[in-house]
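Form 7-S
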Amino acid sequence: MDPYRWSWNPEALLLVPLMTAGYFLALRRLPVPRWRIACFVAAMVLLLVVTITPLETIAMNYLLVIHLLQNVVLAEWAPLLVVVGLPPALAATLARAPVVRTLTHPAVALPLWLANYMLWHLPWLYDTALENPHTLLHLEHALYFATGVAMWWSVVHDEPHRLGSGLRAGVVFAAFILGSPIGLVLALVPEAIYDFYVEAPERLWGLTALEDQQLAGILMALEQASVFFVVFAVLFLRFLTEEERREDFDHHETA
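Output:
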């Protein structure tokens, strides 16, 4: 098999255009800044990049590091960009649905995202999913994306839960602290733990199975540190600004 061939992924080629069409149909009567549209389009492009380009072929057959990159895009980057791409009016409309209200509550969304993320990285389940790419692996990827959207929703949007900036920052911090051990374990464990990649028919780029796993763990750790830190920093600075304004207001009220 040519590791650099493009992948025919009918699910991605169907769902990404459907999501894009639905998004633009929903925006017909809404004033939306271009940067939000750019975020949503970037999410769709990322989804296609990791599911139909040679990255998909390499991830599904040769290298753990590329598969973890794919998972990071599906579970973190693309969901965040999709949620940011939703204008507040559209997000508020969608949030009226009871299932959205329930699944986007931080007390539900964060544990679901963490449990899903950790469960799929258990060696026996990870290997089983890769051995069943048309069923279990598609379920894995769908759950990554869905729980990612739910987790980021209350961090980005006011509706339906109206969290303060401090609590939003706390959600992001908790997601990083509780999710980061996966990358650290992969980087530090002394042997390759995923048999699927140990038994890969060909080693690419001169990487042994253990080196591949260590690189994957380092990539995941650095990626999560970067993405979650940036979002946390933005929210924490907003929290400090809000507190300063509140103190100024209270001072003027008592003066």
